[in-house]
Amino acid sequence: MKRKRNSSTTFCFAVLVAVILIACSSTAMASLINRTFTATGGTIIYEGWFGEEPKQESATDILTVYSGEKVAFQQFMNGSRPVVVSGPYTKSGEKYSGVPFRKETLDSGAVWDSEGKSQEGYFNVEDANGEGGWFEMIAHSFTVELVERRIQEGTSFRLRLQGNEKEAGVLKLTVMDCDGYALTTANGTDVYEILVTYDTTGFAGFSNVPVRGIQVTEEQALEFDTTTLTMDAGKYLISFEDCATEAASTEEIAVEERYLTVACAEDVVMGHEIVIIVTSSFYSDVATVTVGRAPDVSAICNVTLDNEGKKKLKIATDDLDYGTHRIAVEVKELQATTYVTITRAAVGVHVPEQAMVGDLVPVVGDATSGTYAVFVIDGRYNGEAHISDELFAWEWDTRGAPIGCQEIEVFILDQLTSFEIGDDVPATWREEHGVDAAVSIFLHNPAFSMHAPEAIAEGDALFVYGTATGTDHVYLVLLTAEGAVMFPPGGRVRATPVSGGTWEEQLHDLKSGRYKLLGLHRGKEGTTEAIENGTWIVCGPDKTAPQRLAIIEHALSAAGSDDLYAVAALTVSSPWVSLTAPAESEHDETLTITAETNVRDGERAFISLSSGSELIIETATRVANGAVQACIDCRGLPSATYTVRVDIGGRASDEIEIQLGGRPENVSSTEELLTPASELQPTPESAEAVVEDVRVPEEQVEEERALYVHDSPWIAAIALFLALSHRRVRKRV
Predict the structure, then answer these.
(1) What is the spatial distance between Cα 299 and Cα 297, in angstroms, rounded to a whole number?
(2) What tens digit of pLDDT does each residue of 418-450 get?
(3) Which of 108, 183, 689, 697 pairs as cysteine with 684 (C-beta 3.0–4.6 A)?
(4) Handedness of CA 714, 715, 717, 718 (dihedral sign)
(5) Stretch 258-262: mean pLDDT, rounded?
(6) Nearest-CA neighbor of 288 among 305, 269, 265?
């Protein structure tokens, strides 16, 4: 709300009003005729006598003070005087209800702080002569707006002041990086609380020394130079705060990296187009694309990048030479390069790694030129295929082909040859036309193998596995010694899948007994006489296992059959384990316990060492390669007879006795070892002989006793014996 008036006009008007008032002998109303703006507030100019009601004032005579400003008051003709500021009031001059009423007396030149004052109603100012006027107080707000849609490194951007009604003032400008630190320019100036003046039309200038890299444009926008301000790629926060009102506005900007890239295929076949992709941070700018090395530039063109800074263009290769060419793209002062090689027509061909003799082998490929693909194998013409959409496909009938690695040579031609299937292709013809591609394939006959254990323990699964080529499934049949079909149930055929040339099957719940297992590969033709209507032919009247096997083998080996099969014998017996161990061991040895078993590998086993009913040591392990093994540290154990026991999952167990340290001679029991000490005293051989009773200190006896007493009373007795046995008689002459 702009309320500035011409001073001379105002003065004349005031004189005229005074004359009229004196002439009419009536009371004139006071008015606030103008105000100035400073960084903290400003000065309000008044003249005339103060009226009792704001509504009697003209709207233009009621000035505005923005919340937070510090303002002073001056009489139009006589300058600063002491004044009284009070309010807020209603339009009728009554005190505004519900809001604290304040009355402040100000000395000449003193300022009135609007901070914390109510924004409701009106305030008046009056000096001792009764002159003054009415004013209102409102909140101040404004916003800043970014002019540019995107900002790049090395460019400038602008901010406009929007939504501001305050006639003038000073803003504090601060630019912070993504970490919250004030930006420092290239010459070391901190962009922190820089004072920028403004008015209702925009930014006006700087109150202090301007910052290099920031300037006010003719449109009263604030322009920032990212290069001078060292604003690298990243995010920044630009904040403005009014010095007087503390009204604030911020704008978050992102400075994007300045980049330019160009990409294309490394190799392009002559006659095809080079597809070039340009990506950059230059939006809607013009890029110059050059193909070839200067001064022999083969192609040059200018393209306009889209609003994302991207462009795809195609360059014809018909006028280019074979070889490598340089592709350069330039936008403004940035340049990017890549390279492309113009090649002759490319051919690719693919076949399976291996196949069986007699298969139809698919041969597929691609060719960037030519009309026909001609196939030569082992020096002979085998056929051709038409090239359509740069693709071709052909099938090779391998019947009669030799086993082993075969090479397929491919020739790309524009016309058919005059060769017939099976004709020899002269070496001169092959050299003249040149082999465009070659691929190898290994041909073999169907194969089958089966592996099964000779014996397993009852309760373990029978794991059968093997290899098979030339088929997706194999079939198993398991017969008991009595001829019953144990697998598949009911004799109904069950297929075991082959994956990656291998197969495996597990059979469960086999009882003790002898079995015959047969595995079948139905051969190349995929049929067999051993299976009828999904059932093995052995399912019929009672027959023994040899009879049933003979029936199956007869069907598999009949004339014209290409079946492959294998037979294995299997014994299923009750789980057993046999324990072996050394007869005795010294104290300082580690006891190795070994046991053989028919229980499957991986089954959990427990090995224990005990003395009588007392369990001393127990360890857990697993069956591996038909055996169980564990090591027991027997150091520190007293000499005695111990029991070693092995148990495999509660299914099989065995135990043996071992002697640790050897049994003392002429001692039949533990009680005999505890001979009273008096009986162990020897008689001196002569008077000169001195008998010395070497006694074991009581502390040592207690220590050795405590070493074993916690294990068992029996071991404690042995410990006591060992302590006493240290007492010995030594003769001294």
Answers:
(1) 6
(2) 999 999 999 889 888 888 888 899 888 888 899
(3) 689
(4) positive
(5) 90
(6) 305
Q: How far is it, in rounded angstroms, from Cα 373 to Cα 351? A: 15
Residues in the chain: 733
**Residue 14 parent element (H or E):** helix 7-24
For the residues of 307-359, what is the DSSP string, one character each?
TTSEEEEEE--TTSPSEEEEEEEEETTEEEEEEEEEE---EEEE--SEEETT-
Q: Are 245 and 166 in contact (CB under 8 A)?
A: yes
Query: Could you tell me how many helices (H) and strands (E) the chain has, helices first?
Result: 6, 57
Closest CA to 345 of 373, 385, 383, 379: 373
Dihedral angle, C-alpha 6, 51, 244, 242, nearest 10 °: -70
Crossing angle of the two packed helices 713-725 and 698-708, in degrees rounded to 10: 150
Q: Which two tokens stand for residue 37?
A: 């703006």
Structure tokens at 20: 């009229």
8 Å CB contact between 544 and 479: no
Rounded to the nearest 10°, the torsion over CA 75, 76, 77, 79 is 40
Instruction: Please check whether residue 438 is in contact with residue 408, taking contact to mean a CB–CB distance below 8 angstroms.
Output: yes
CA-only gyration radius of the chain, Å:
55
Q: For residue range 333-380, what is the model confidence (pLDDT) as tens digits?
A: 889 999 998 877 667 888 988 888 777 899 999 887 788 999 999 889
pLDDT tops 50 at residue 685? no
